[in-house]
Amino acid sequence: MSKDWLTTILPFAVLTLVMALRWRNVKRARPFKPGRLWIAPALYLVLVGFVLIAMPPSAAGWLAFATGVLIGAALGWQRGKLMHLEHDGQGQLMIRTSPAALVVIILVVGAKRIFAPAARGGAAGAPALAPQALLFTDALLGFALGMIVAMRIELWLRARRMGAVREGN
């Protein structure tokens, strides 16, 4: 097994495992713990950080990334408003989630892993892609990060308005 093949497939395998584990709980109401809202954005930030360090964007790529963060934040905020929060019979806050943010991350990281070698001239005989392909994936990385962070902030604010978050927590 060549090292190039392994470095391409391993991230897909890990992301597939994560997606499969998350997919089990989709659309099922589950207890909502506002104190844990920071965990997913932190994990995604680490993932995006690794991708950006491994394949640093150009100056235009950073601009595309920042633009993606802003657009993703706007959509993430709206998505957070649309997620269903409710109190169950015992006063526990419940939420129904969607895998959309996770799907976006998987698609963006996958596209970045596929397009980056080809944009650099990749394997012998492989056609080089236009630099716009990498700009697009940089923008999508920012979009996914902005969407996840803004959605979690909106959910935390909604939980606080519902009395599920106490001051000082």
Question: Please, could you describe this protein's structure?
Answer:
The protein has 169 residues and is mainly α. It has one domain (3-25, 36-161). It has five helices and three strands, in the order H-E-H-H-E-E-H-H. A three-stranded antiparallel β-sheet has the order 1-3-2, with no helix packed on it. Helix 2 (39-54) runs antiparallel to helix 5 (131-161) and helix 4 runs antiparallel to helix 5. It starts with a helix and ends in an 8-residue tail after the last helix.
Summed up, what is this model?
The protein has 169 residues and is mostly helical. The chain has helices at residues 3-23, 39-54, 59-82, 100-119, 131-161, and strands spanning 30-31, 84-87, 93-96.
Any key phrases for this structure?
mainly alpha; 169 residues; 66% helix; single chain
Unreliable parts: none
Approximately how much helix is present in the residues? Answer: 55-70%
What is the string of SSEs from the N terminus onward? HEHHEEHH
What is the terminal separation in angstroms? 49 Å
Instruction: From the alpha carbons, calculate the radius of gyration and give it in angstroms.
Output: 18 Å
Beta strand count = 3
- Give, in spatial order, the strands making up the sheet with the most strands: 1-3-2
Our count of domains comes out at 1
What share of residues are in beta strands? 5-15%
Average pLDDT, rounded to a whole number, is 80
Give the CA-based shape: globular
Tell me about the largest β-sheet: 3 strands, antiparallel
Helix count?
A: 5
Secondary-structure content class: mainly alpha
